[in-house]
Design brief:
Two copies of one chain form a homodimer. By secondary structure, chain A is an alpha/beta fold. Chain A has nine helices and ten strands. In chain A, the strands form two sheets. Chain A has a seven-stranded mixed beta sheet. Chain A has a three-stranded antiparallel beta sheet with strand order 1-3-2. In chain A, α1 packs antiparallel against α4 and α2 packs across α3. At the A-B interface, α1, α5 and α9 of A face α1, α5 and α9 of B.
């Protein structure tokens, strides 16, 4: 299907379209021209038309885009028409932040369980979701559908835990540990490297401070 | 200086080089060839040589790279030879996670204060860092050096808070709110959009599930 042909650059922009269209939906906007969307998103109108043409267009000459329809279609492309069972490995602040983020649920990502090795955390609940002992992780995965494991553990532990989970059958990992996971090709890993984001910020700040010569 | 000429793609790769070299340093590795670095990083050796040639090379024929020197030089390019005073706006789980992340300090980012409007949080401390009333934010910024404000507040509030902080003189914003901030050009904004990262993961998972036709 068409999904196979889309460039990575377009895919990287799709979540942003989806977010803007979601904001418009919340404001009960029914339709929008590529020109208006372009002004909001600070992207050229021709870029928008080009991107959306990858999926057969969606726009109508003289009418613009139907917000609800376009939002739903992009959602389908992003796989948001499905439900995902998520587990979180690591019940520290970051793991708790993810568990508390109700917006994820609205998009079909349901946190089913949190795992940790800390006896003080095991048995507690975060937004009603139980923190379980990492010891029973394999048992849990064998008995429950898990689509995505969010990994919020220290970088020294992440590679081993990820490798173990892959053996248990996990196919999708959302990795927050500041290390790259080298896993089999059939596993999908999406990294959030916070320290690297911060370095990009400091780079841009320091370039600005450097006087031009 | 050379900083002006470097492509964005190279800049985006630098934090990763910095991270790998830091890991090697921790393991007391003194030097590494581009071939070895290439195998570790899963990037071609020629890509590595090309990237590092942007900064005058650093490598010596037949010797490879001096890990400590290269780490320090890339650190300088990234602005990591300076210290940054950071404040966090929003003392929720995510703000607390950032405040607790000691690794940032090792790289020169010091969290000086956290601000929130919640009376239950004001006056508490996170890793010794006081949570202050957002009411006194302007006063604080007027009397203290602040290089970076991390914004971990709801998306409905983020644009106004960011605009206010810019008026108070803030030049660097690390934005975690799921919204784009449209601020004057002299302000540097680095976004971490978690929901968009999750959507990229679901896209890649759903493409894999789709049978090829």
């Amino acid at each position: 299907m068409y999904k196979k042909e889309i460039s990575k650059a377009v895919i990287n922009r799709l979540p942003r379209y989806y977010r803007y269209l979601g904001d418009l939906l919340e404001k009960d906007v029914v339709r929008i021209s590529s020109k208006e969307l372009s002004e909001k998103m600070k992207v050229t109108a021709s870029q928008i038309r080009q991107d959306l043409n990858n999926f057969g267009g969606f726009g109508q000459q003289g009418y613009g885009y139907n917000v609800e329809y376009l939002h739903a279609e992009i959602g389908k492309i992003l796989g948001l028409d499905k439900k995902y069972s998520v587990i979180i490995i690591g019940a520290g602040n970051l793991g708790q932040a993810l568990a508390n983020y109700v917006d994820f649920e609205r998009r079909g990502f349901f946190v089913r369980s949190i795992f940790d090795i800390n006896p003080n955390l095991i048995g507690t609940k975060i937004r009603g979701i139980e923190v379980r002992d990492s010891e029973i992780l394999e048992d849990y995965i064998n008995n429950n559908q898990v689509d995505i494991a969010a990994l919020t553990v220290p970088k020294t532990k992440a590679p081993q835990i990820a490798a173990d989970m892959v053996k248990m059958g996990i196919k999708g990992i959302w990795n927050f540990a500041p290390t790259d996971l080298h896993l089999p090709k059939e596993v999908t890993v999406e990294n959030v490297h916070l320290a690297e984001s911060l370095m990009k910020l400091s780079y841009r700040l320091s370039v600005r401070e450097t006087p031009k010569e």
